[in-house]
Amino acid sequence: MIPSAPTLAFVESPVQLLNVLEWAYARATPAGPLPLDGIPPQRARSGPAPGEGPGPAAPVRIVVLPPTDPMSRGQLRRMAALARDEGHDVCWQEARGSRLAPLRALAALARDVRAARTVVVGDPFSRYVQLLLTLVRAEELVVVDDGTATMEFVAQTARGERLVRWHRAGGGGLPGRVRELAYAPVSATARRRFTPGPAADGGARRVEVFTSMPVVPHGATVLRANDFAWTRARFGPPRLTRGTDLVGTSLVETGVVDPGRYLDAVRALTAEHGATRYFAHRRESAEKLRTLGRETGLEIVRPDLPLELIARRGPVGRTILSFPSTVVHTLPYALAGTGVTVAVCDVDPSWLTGSASPRARSFLAGVSDTARDVRRLPARTASTAG
């Protein structure tokens, strides 16, 4: 059992852990919460000058609940090392891999969850995180970005809807419906925790969303802008290459985009923009990446850290191409002042699979439409690729 801590964070991905570090760094800044349009990327500096910026962040107890795939676990271990270098206490807690693992983890963490005054979570859609939230008595709950899912989380919470990932199409038959019914009380409790209100000690529970995404606050929820100040202060600026880099996506793996259409899109973008490297998403399959490399000639790179850190350390292309994803919102912050152009290629509706969620088309369009300080690629790129 880990010792109790006033601030306890739960992360399940490398990006979540990165954003916990960003949140802790931002908390050391005297300024209060800022509106999301208060720090446009083009005005963010490349990092504090010597002697400027916040002091050391208050230590956070970070509990890593790792997934089972090797790429994610490797990146999480690298991020955990960076977090320890920043003075945070990192605990690696296995919660998957067997039927009893979740129960063992819950028993190991229960006392500390109840004792924490501030609880930070990275994935409000996670069933395991929602289960932990039933034990929370904290006076403050913070949600840090888990990518573009934050946009859907804030919208669903504002509408009072149950929390469902945007790419889930539903279904699952009778067993799935039975599981949903059995889990409903836990999900309902989690939704209440994400709404500001009375705390267990009789005081008021504060809810904060720390995000780079363009979201609209609801009720008494506090928004704090994540402009990747820690990343800019610790890394870079990067050396720029003459080439163009392409960022991969897991839309095929989540069943949203047809594999053949995706290959066509990557091939077209590579030919049109002279891309030379492909930064793979940690969830992309090895078979898919081998096909992409063989068919396009791209150098396939499997990053050992989140792309925001990889790009900031460099070397990186003067242009970074991406499909609608988190990086079209985060890279303009992380690479502010470096001269790198981030461009987004829309997903043509004809690329979607028949099993894609009904909301997939509008959600992906919204990710592109709301991206700031990025270049939108001509529509002909999408039609050519499709």
Task: Walk me through the structure.
This protein is α/β, with parallel strands linked by helices and 386 residues long. The protein contains 13 helices and 14 strands. Strands 1, 2, 3, 4, 5, 6, 7 and 8 form an eight-stranded mixed sheet that branches. Strands 11-10-9-12-13-14 form a six-stranded parallel sheet, with helices on both faces. α1 runs parallel beside α2, α4 crosses α6 and α8 packs across α13. The longest helix is centred in the middle third of the chain and has 21 residues. The termini are far apart. About 5% of the residues have low confidence.
Give the topology:
Layout: E1 7-11, H1 14-27, E2 61-64, H2 70-85, E3 89-92, H3 101-115, E4 118-121, H4 127-133, E5 140-144, H5 149-159, H6 173-193, E6 197-198, E7 204-211, E8 222-225, H7 229-234, E9 240-247, H8 259-273, E10 275-279, H9 286-296, E11 299-301, H10 307-313, E12 316-322, H11 327-334, E13 341-344, H12 360-369, E14 375-376, H13 379-385
